[in-house]
Predict the 3D structure of the following.
Amino acid sequence: MNRRRGISLIEMIAVMGVGAVMMGVAVTLLYGLLRAEGSGREHVRQSSVLGRLADQFRRDVHAAKAVAAAADGEGRQFELAPGRTVTYRFQPGTLTRTEQVDAAPQRQESYALPPGTTATIRIPANTQPAIVSLMITPAAEASAQPAGRAIQIDAVLAGDHRFAKPEEP
């Protein structure tokens, strides 16, 4: 009887083929997982930035006594106290908040917005109490990818002054 020791060439090619297919599936799966992780991390970062912006915007509007167009015509300026203002300006991709005391900048913060978005501050007429809205709107793109949803952050102007004593003339 002739006993066979070892493997044939056909068996070796079959094993290598199965191994190559399994490696291809593993690499594709790994690539997909890394992409999903990166996308998830970006989503968490954007949510964090928008959350901080919403909190700061609401605090500024609640503390403000008045709102007007910024001195340079771009953005909105909130008067928090005599000589103390906060200005919001939009540049492509960022919203900048500048805090000033006696016209001297004290602090400046920039909030990175999602790509292709625009930001506007709206003050509807004839609303009591005055409600100020920060609208972050995605640009309508012709691509197959969804543009995202609009975000509206509302705050009541002078909301922190409800229990304050009126100023004497």
